[in-house]
Amino acid sequence: MDAPGPPRPGPRRTLTEQDLLDAAFRLLDRGGPRALSVRALASEVGLTPNAVYTYFPTKDALVAAVTDTLLGRAPVAVLTDAGRPWRDRVIAFALGLRSLLLDHPGTVPLLLASGFRGPHALAVGEGLLAALGDGGLVPDDAARASYALTTHLLGTVALDVAEPDPAEPDGTGSRGTGAARDEEARAARRTRELRALPADAAPRTVAAAAAVGAYNTTTQYRWGLERLLDGVCGDAASDS
Amino acid sequence: MDAPGPPRPGPRRTLTEQDLLDAAFRLLDRGGPRALSVRALASEVGLTPNAVYTYFPTKDALVAAVTDTLLGRAPVAVLTDAGRPWRDRVIAFALGLRSLLLDHPGTVPLLLASGFRGPHALAVGEGLLAALGDGGLVPDDAARASYALTTHLLGTVALDVAEPDPAEPDGTGSRGTGAARDEEARAARRTRELRALPADAAPRTVAAAAAVGAYNTTTQYRWGLERLLDGVCGDAASDS
DNA sequence: AGATAATTCTGCACACCGTACAGAGAGCGC
DNA sequence: GCGCTCTCTGTACGGTGTGCAGAATTATCT
């Protein structure tokens, strides 16, 4: 994708930027956001810490590259998949991007901190605008809807990732990507905890314990998504 | 509010927890999230760093106390203000909480990291459930809507705070709370930047440059809020 | 009353963090 | 060949959270 650039003087690098990014994902997936340090990354790829600075000028730049690389794996293709209703495309994309992020929970805090500013984030925005345009929205409303979808997604994954992991409550920020992320079991446990709350502390929350316990589930996310799209498509969508 | 507790042996403390929390807010407002370190806090209140650990067992606990304290200032009263339409109440509350968080942007990354788990977060949830219940939603739908509103809010403030501050681009994470946060000026500048983008990079984004530039504005937030509430109130709100 | 135990706070220490700086070696253009 | 530029190493600085030992203070028990 990127041009390899003209041959420059100096010794050839022993690694590519992509090697470092792969190693960064390995560290993040293994130990959460705190595990991505310049020193750990260097040792993971067999370099001296300062050698990393010949690949990325600063740690923030490294983090930005990591998050944008991840966004580059977003299933933007489904957004422009003609012959499929536009709303299906948006929902499929949103669900896909959500699972992508939750498959790498360690990256989520980094994404929230570095924003949605890279080239691949722009591509995501373009795709959403295309699909929403197909839905008949004028460009400005499509943009507003695109942003609402984005904030809904980011808020959702932020709260999901912030949920403490009962398996290893030592606060390392790590999180299993396999069986430990069984949504139903998590929801059931949360619901049980809610029902055990002191009686008068939060009566309405306890009364809706099943739905509250299921906050961080695909079902809840999809529900919000559908309601948002309902509102966007409604006839009241142009009062701004 | 909290019981002062029975008198315990040992010397009296020279400060209250609230003193430390106030100092923490001072540091956060002055220098952003990175400015809140145990050592900086200790020096701000005139203590040794380790003395802080007699007030909070760990830095994470301190951060949790900070974020929940902030949530305790959320305008929950408006949610149960009878004699005002429920929808108005929800919107007023959401706008109020958003400005509260944006008035202390340094706390937002901490809130995202520590989740929405404290007692005051629970109170916010209760208030939302009450107002949404007044809107005629069954408890489970009220809960789902409450969560959707929360994620929308958190995603919004997350992206807002992540926006780099052009005034001091040195990445300290600080942010002016006064004139530097003039929404219209910021939106205009963003729109200008978008229009200067390479022609074929993101045509749809450029075509909607005015709306995209206005992403981090109250207007955009309110638009998403209204659309979400439209969808929640619609007749299609019970397909789950 | 005095002894005991609990608590606050100090000082030192450790391991880790991002990264600035100086220098060695490698590879290209002249 | 020379010289420039780039990659990578080593050392170092100031910062981080926090564990541990000890002094001082106070409430409780005998």
From TrEMBL, chains A, B:
SUPFAM superfamilies: Homeodomain-like, Tetracyclin repressor-like, C-terminal domain. Residues 14-74 form the HTH tetR-type domain. Signal peptide: none annotated. It comes from the Bacteria. Residues 37-56 bind DNA. InterPro entries: Homeodomain-like_sf (IPR009057), HTH-type_TetR-like_transc_reg (IPR050109), HTH_TetR (IPR001647), Repressor_TetR_C (IPR004111), Tet_transcr_reg_TetR-rel_C_sf (IPR036271). Residues 162-183 are annotated as: Disordered. It holds the Pfam family TetR_N. Keywords: DNA-binding, Transcription, Transcription regulation. This is HTH tetR-type domain-containing protein. It comes from Myceligenerans crystallogenes.
